Each structure stands twice: as structure tokens, then as C-alpha cells.
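Structure request: Polysaccharide biosynthesis protein, Eiseniibacteriota bacterium.
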Amino acid sequence: MEGVLDRLAPRHRLVTGLVQSALAAVAAVAALRLRYGATPPPEIANLVMAGLPIVMVVRAFWFDRTGLTRDVWQYFGADEALAIVAACALGSVTLGLPLLWRSPFTDAPLALLVIDAVLCVALLSGARVLRCVHRRLARKALAKRRVLIVGTDDEAERLVHGLTAHPLYDYVVVGLVGPLPSHRGLTVHDAPILGCFRQLPEVIRAHDPDEIMVVSSAVPSDERREVVRLCRQSDCPVHVVPDLSDSIIGRSRVEVVDPEATEALLFREPLDLNLALLRKTIAGRRILVTGAGGSIGSEICRQVADLDAAALVLLERHEHSLFELERALRASHPRVALRPMLGDVRDGARVEEVLALTRPQMIFHAAAYKHVPMVEHNPLEAVKTNVLGTWVVADAAARAGVEVFVLISTDKAVDPVSVMGATKRMAELMVHSMSATSRTRFLAVRFGNVLDSSGSVLPLFREQIRKGGPVTVTHPDATRWFMTVPEAVKLILTASGIGRGGEVFVLDMGKPVRILDLARALIRQYGLRPERDVPIVFTGLRPGERVYERLFGECEVIQKTSHPRILMATHGATNGNGRPHHSEEFHRLLQAVQGAAGGLTPDLRDAVAELEAVCA
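Returned structure:
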């Protein structure tokens, strides 16, 4: 592209220079007629006609020096207008200097040069305006996409101008929507203001745009979520456009155009928790996070650091993930005492060594294998990490006198049909049982699907959309409960503060969301139309998956907590037999589970049932 422009630039300057010189000659002749009428004095007329070549050369020189031979006429604006005025004024001064001392120019009136300069400015400006008008009319006739812009500030004005002026954009702006009803009827670059934010549904129905662009800076932050929600009530693709200044200085990326885009995919209001309670729970305490380099573990670390923990121990087996997390936390939270520790939760000796060195008061156990189809094909490894690894850390925590142990679980642990769900159910049962015989408060937090976590469906959908599709959905009726990574971590931290031991905490996530609806909403976030611009195909359920998930088991008692959006599940028979559960008994069962994992999945389910019977 740059090579083509390099070849065209000299030709463009030559043609533009010749045209503008010709317009300068026309201005000189017109000035003569305006000054003297249809019959100017012969000596003045002869002087002007004979001097036309000089006029053209002088004007061309200043046109080139001021950049008028290099500008593109269809982008005419205030800067170009000032350049035209400067070029014409400098040209007239150059032509008028001989009047001060040389004959016969002394007989030529200075008024003629003034008129000539004014006409020259008018002709050069008019030619550019006509080019802009012609191009805009031509593009309106050919445009394919009709866009509605939400916002009326300076950024919105620049967006309107950019969409209508850029030769590669195939847009017609049908109108704008602003914050004030009184602005209705005004125009921005010929685009009418059609109403205010609360009238968005009516405006969208009346004008049926192909696309909606929400200008981030033009919508107050406390209203942005509601405005985006109103826009997304239609099937029209919605873009949230970042502040142009943020894009220039690198604070905004093209792909992440909407900081609240992930929350919009929840189809509900995000969780709002009491930060004072969270700070009271975490501040001044020593915290250990297993699986610290994962998406959930790393977010736990960030939020714990925000809440002024006295020390933060990062236990992670992947060296690079641990290095990157430590580097990021040291940059963002320099005052937090960090202890990066390489280690595997399956290594009992290493876990005990870490606990002895760091003496944590709270442990958040996020280390796990969680990818359902992958775990289905590698059940033994899942048991080693999700079951035995949990036992190793929980048992070490109890013997080390850790105050709180929080297990990160999943809704797939409810009546499990997958290996991953079965291993997580075993982990839940273990910590539930251990809470009865230990001073450590053992809790579990049961998640739905966590949006944007590693291995979740959202990154996969984004990658498929960027490639033009198709977006793959397992089943048209498949539904899941969804939560964001920050919501998941806030739930973990809240549970650690309100749990007494033995409970399973679950976030009230509203109604489950169809995966198909999630895929369609995400496609619209990219400004595309589901099934038209990006196809959606159904691939069938994979091993270990089911159409619907559940949040609670049949034998669990559901209770409310101090937070209206957080529920608590307790086992129907919490150690009613009073029988203590010793390490030897657990080890025997865990060895049976490990042996079952090497065989078929039904054997693993039988092991879960046996463990559930013992823990009840």
C-alpha cells in the first residue's frame, strides 16, 4: 500500500498544482471584471492578461509551500481553510511588491489584488467543498450499513465525522441519541439527534439500524450498563466504542472495546458485595493460594492483595505462571509481602514444608483439573490432583492449625456424571467431613461456569468469531449458570468470612443461560449478526457433559445467609452418627478411588457413593 501511495504522490501534486493554478488564473480574470465591469481600461486589461503566467507561477509556488498540493480535497476542514488563506495572502503580497517601486505596475490599483485574493480563496475552498459534497452524496447512495450512535459529546462528533468521511467505511449515520430530551431535533454533521437515552427502544424500533455504537465517554458510568442493556434488547449488533484518547495512549485495545462486555453476558445484574466485610476478613492475615497461577487463583491473589493481606503465599507448580503472577503483583502491590513457592499439591512433603515456612492463617485451594472432556480421558490424573491433592492440602492444613480452608468446587459436583464432577464431589465430601473433627473451618464454594476463566467457553467463542466462524455449540438447549471471575472470587472471600465450617456456598446466579443465547450475544458484541455474518453449528454433547446442570443435591439443605445473593447448602446428615474420621480410613477410601480411576467411570461413581456414605 505504501508503495502505491509513493508512486501516486508526485502525480497527485502535479495535477493538484495545475488545477489550483488554473483556478488562480480564473480568479484574476474575474477580479478584473468585478473591479472594472464588462469593459475594463485597455491598459489594465492588457496588463492583467499579459501577467497571467506570472500570477499562476507565483500562486503555484505558495500553494506548494503551504501544502495545498499535497492535501486530499475530500478531507477539507479548518486547517486546510487556513492554509488556503495563507497561500493566497502570501501570493498577493508577492505580486503587489512591485507596485511599490516599479513601472508600469504603479498604475495598477491595489484593490484589484485584494479582490483577486478573496476570489482565489473562494474558488479553492469551493472546489474542495464540492468534492466533499459529491463524495458524501455518492456514499449515501451506495452505503450498506445504517448506524445509530449513542452519545452527543466531542467523541461522538468525531465518530460521526469519521464514519461519514472515511472512504473505506460503508456507513450511513441514521441519527444520534443523547442524554437530554431538549437536544432532540438538533443535528451533528447532518445526522439528527433522535431522542434521549431512555427513549432508545422506541428510537431503535422506529429507525431499525443495522448497528448501534455506544460512545463510552458520552454515557456516564452509572448509566452505561443500563444504556447498553436497552440497546441489546434488540437483535441489532452493539459496539461500545472506547475513548479515542485512551486508544491513542494505549489504555484501550480494539478487541476489548467494552469494559463491561463480559458482565453484559450474564443476563443479570452482577454481584455486589460488602467490601468492608471482605477487608475485615482478609486484612492483616497470612493467606496461601494453591493453583495461584490459574485464572481463579490469580484473581484471588489480586483481590487479597487489594484487601491489605499481611502476607500472600503463591503455591503454583508451573514456573512461568508463577513468575508472571509474582512480577505483576510486585508492580501493582509493592507493599504486600509475597512468597512465591513452586510446588505440587500432590506432593505431601512439599506442602507441609510450605506450610511450616509460611504459617498461613487461611488457605484458598484453587488447584484443580477442571476441563471436563480432558479429564474424562485422563481420570487417574484428575483423581491425583482433585481428590488426593485436596486431601494432602486439607490434612496438612488441619495439622498445621490453619484457621480457614476454602475449597473451590463446581456445580458439576452435584449428582456428577463426569469424572471432573465426581472428583470435585469427593473433595467436597472430604472437607465437609473434616470440619467435624478439626479446629480448622473447612468450607466449599460451588461455582457455575466462570466466564473468561481458562478453558471456559468464552475465549473459544471469541477465537471462533475472530476467524469468521463457525461458532460451535454442543446442544441447542444446553444451559449453564454463569458468573464472572471477580464475582467468583468475591464469593470465595465472603464465604471465608461468614462460614462456620462444613457448608457449601453457592451464588444465586438467577436463571441459567442457554449457551446458544450466550454465543449470539457475544457475536453481536463484535458488531456482527448471528447466523448471518457468523454461522453457529451444533456439535453434540461431549463425554462427561449434560444438557442441564444443578446447583444443589437432593440430600442438601438450602439456607439463606447474611447476603441475599449467597445461599448455603449443608449436608442433610452432618456427621449424625458422631463417628470420627481418621486419616487411615480416608486413605483406605482414597486408595480405592485411585484404583477405580484407572478403570471405567461407573467404578469411579461407585467410589464416590461409598465416600458419601462414610462422610454422611
